[in-house]
Write a structure and sequence with these properties.
This protein has strands at about 1-5, 10, 20-25, 30-40, 45-50, 55-60, 65-70, 75-80, 90-100, 105-110, 115. It is built from no helices and 11 strands. The chain is an all-beta fold. It starts with a strand and ends with a strand. Helix content is about 0%, strand content about 60%.
């Protein structure tokens, strides 16, 4: 069982930057990957960035070169550095923790943090 909390969202102008944080607590030794997802009104939730326990990263094409996902294993925390933000990046950003089980994986989600990119 893992509890996930996001923070760092807010209002930023196009071209600006924000850094999101995601802190995990509980059975963190069972986490095999963590990721950031986002959802805008009327759209499905989609992948932003993903990082495994071995450090392998994956990004959505729309954010490659602009966003960077990092982790601090000692703090059980992952970060999303967002640069060159665009209005289309506006969404609620959710952190996900993926745990491995004997037969299947388990997913735990944070409450979400709003990111608004507007002038």
């Amino acid at each position: 069982q893992v509890h996930v909390v996001e923070s760092g969202g807010g209002l930023v102008q196009p071209g600006g930057s924000l850094k999101l944080s995601c802190a995990a607590s509980g059975s963190t030794s069972s986490i095999k990957a963590m990721g950031w997802y986002r959802q805008a009104p009327g759209k499905e939730r989609g992948l932003v960035a993903h990082i495994t326990s071995s450090g392998t990263t994956n990004y959505a094409d729309s954010v490659k070169g602009r966003f960077t996902i990092t982790r601090d294993s000692a703090k059980n925390t992952v970060y999303l550095q967002m640069n060159s933000l665009k209005p289309e990046d506006t969404a609620v950003y959710y952190c996900n923790a993926e745990l491995s089980g004997a037969y299947w994986d388990y997913d735990y989600w944070g409450q979400g943090t709003q990111v608004t990119v507007s002038s």
